[in-house]
Design a protein that fits this description.
The complex is a heterodimer. Chain A is mainly alpha-helical. Chain A is built from twelve helices and no strands. The longest helix of chain A is centred in the first third of the chain and has 19 residues. The C terminus of chain A is likely disordered. By secondary structure, chain B is α+β, with helices and mostly antiparallel strands. In chain B, 26% of the residues lie in helices and 28% in strands. Chain B contains seven helices and eleven strands. In chain B, strands 1, 2, 3, 4, 5, 6, 7, 8, 9, 10 and 11 form an eleven-stranded mixed β-sheet that branches. The longest helix of chain B is centred in the first third of the chain and has 18 residues. Chain B is globular, with a radius of gyration of 26 Å. The chains are: A mainly alpha, B alpha+beta. Chains A and B meet through helix 2, helix 3, helix 5, helix 6 and helix 7 of A and helix 1, helix 2, strand 1, strand 2 and helix 4 of B.
């Protein structure tokens, strides 16, 4: 199996070869986009991402064998015009996660949080992040990239990735964990609402 | 679980891309390729079939059948309670609380809630997403909140840059130093986020009012049953632990009225497993009595001043070594101070909106 970089290199002279990149990575791009903007918009994001990628293939760094960071970076930029849809897609998170989290995932004793309540707050926390922090966090959590991949993806140094991730995680932690309780109780004291 | 695990598990069960969408995207790409380069070798389209994602099963909690909706009969009171020393301290605190008076805000005044907190975060020991081992890194935050006399008015919230520090070992310190210096480089050490939101609707979340406390029973027995019932199934920890943490969470908010605080102290004394942890516990310079409850490897403490009935803060103490933390380490803590002030800082980002999303 030839590396992505090899295929992309070849596609300079043999454009149709680029379809192999699509076949390899379209489901990954779709999966990442679906989590951010919902399944239906993800169809369009996936399609557009590869059109943009094809146009930009001459600029691909052939020293990077795996094209995933590059493609997810493009998808991230394509999704920027869908920010409102993204916020709406997160609204649906609560029910999904409440059904999908099983108690045996609770392994970090320090972070034993009420999954149901926590999820309800994820959406708010994600909305409160800056775009740069949000992209970094979601490439990590939903795009399954490592720090180096995210750095390639967004064109920033690894140190910046680490810093953004830290800030984003702190915000999430505040919202979903103990400190989030504190924030919530500043304004929200209805025990029934916590149960909802 | 930590916040990343939570996020990762979110939307994990979304359906994969449909074969028709894949085909459409592929056709669009092929068209695009063809437009750019008129001569194009045709390829046979492959159809992909995606199996439908399986839905995670939902665990049902069966405990509900034993509880009764009126809270007159319930889980509270017949399974033992706090140990005698804890019960005595809580009783003292309850008596003091009922005799104390809540701060009264005149028009134009603010209730100021100052909070210092340290939270543990678990970082992957390396940047590889498959990395299993993690190290603890601490984040210290300060928060300064101004709540107006009329809670529908604008609240103001100051949030200085958090300070990240290691647990003393090399891996943890290195991560913390990198994070801290990077944060400082990005926004400056003196950075303070300032938020302003009518009704305290931070980041657009709908507000609730302090009047919600009015609905809670002042009878400790009914209050505890109410909490057991309301929190049922909401947390994988035991109902007793959930109830303990519920009271801790509410008290930490700093807004619980004195009569309810008294009832909460009495209700805490009725929870099995509640122990007297420390008669002179120190939390960020405040000394008080620690009342705790052990859940798995952690003791959750609330710190109270039995003589005044004031809530001082809370903390979690690790009872067995985990990762780079030794037994006895404090995982996290929060200390709160309330006061009445005549003015709040001006300015602030409305609702804490940041770029890209409008909060309605």
């Amino acid at each position: 199996v030839s590396a992505d970089s090899e295929v992309i290199g070849r596609s300079a002279g043999e454009p149709a070869a680029f379809v192999l990149i699509y076949d390899r990575h379209a489901p990954t791009v779709h999966r990442y986009a679906a989590r951010r903007v919902g399944v239906h918009v993800a169809d369009d994001v996936m399609s557009e991402t590869f059109l943009v990628a094809f146009e930009g293939r001459a600029k691909y760094d052939l020293g990077v064998p795996d094209a995933r960071p590059w493609l997810l970076g493009i998808a991230t930029r394509v999704m920027r015009k869908h920010t409102r849809l993204e916020a709406r897609a997160w609204k649906g998170m609560t029910a999904e996660i409440a059904a999908s989290i099983s108690p045996d995932l609770i392994e970090q004793a320090s972070a034993r949080v009420d999954a149901e309540r926590a999820t309800r707050r994820l959406e708010t926390a994600l909305r409160g992040l800056s775009r740069a922090d949000r992209d970094t966090l979601l490439l990590y959590a939903w795009g399954d990239l490592d720090y180096a991949g995210i750095a390639q993806s967004l064109g920033v140094p690894i140190g910046t990735v680490r810093s953004r991730l830290n800030r984003a995680r702190r915000r999430l932690r505040e919202a979903t964990g103990r400190q989030g309780e504190q924030e919530r109780e500043h304004g929200r004291t209805d025990p029934a609402a916590q149960h909802a | 679980m930590d916040e990343l695990t939570l996020l990762r598990n979110t939307r994990d069960d979304l359906e994969g891309v449909s074969s028709s969408a894949l085909d459409r995207g592929r056709a669009a790409l092929l068209d695009h390729v063809a437009e750019s380069f008129p001569v194009l070798a045709t390829r046979t389209r492959r159809r992909r079939r995606r199996t439908a994602a399986t839905l995670a099963s939902v665990a049902a909690v069966a405990l509900g059948t034993t509880l009764v909706l009126t809270d007159v009969v319930g889980f509270a009171g017949w399974r033992g309670g706090a140990d005698p020393a804890a019960a005595a301290a809580l009783d003292d605190a309850s008596r003091a609380a009922i005799e104390s008076e809540d701060p009264v805000l005149a028009r134009g005044q603010f209730l100021r809630l100052e909070e210092s907190a340290v939270n543990v975060g678990w970082w992957p020991a390396s940047s590889d997403p498959g990395e299993e081992s993690s190290v603890a890194v601490f984040t210290a935050t300060e928060s300064d909140l101004y709540i107006p006399a009329d809670t529908a008015d604008a609240w103001v919230w100051l949030r200085p840059l958090a300070r990240t520090y290691g647990a003393g070992d090399r891996a943890s310190n290195e991560i913390a130093d990198a994070v801290q210096s990077s944060n400082v480089a990005e926004v400056g050490a003196e950075h303070v986020e300032r938020l302003r939101a009518p009704g305290g609707r931070w980041y657009g979340e709908p507000a609730a009012s302090r009047a919600d406390f009015d609905a809670l029973p002042r009878d400790p027995y009914r209050l505890l049953n109410f909490v057991y019932r309301q929190q049922l199934g909401s947390n994988p920890a035991s109902p007793d632990q959930v109830a303990f943490q519920y009271f801790s969470d509410q008290l930490r908010g700093g807004l619980v009225p004195a009569d309810l605080r008294a009832a909460m102290f009495d209700a805490l004394a009725m929870i099995p497993g509640v122990v007297f942890a420390d008669g002179a516990a120190n939390l960020d310079g405040r000394t008080g009595t620690a009342i705790g409850r052990v859940d798995q490897d952690i003791r959750w403490d609330i710190l109270i001043d039995p003589s005044s009935g004031r809530f001082l803060g809370e903390r979690q103490v690790l009872l067995e070594a985990v990762g780079n933390l030794a037994a006895g380490a404090t995982l996290s803590w929060t200390a709160v101070t309330t006061s009445v002030v005549d003015a709040a800082p001006t300015g602030g980002t409305p609702y804490g909106d940041l770029e890209g999303v409008t909060v309605g």
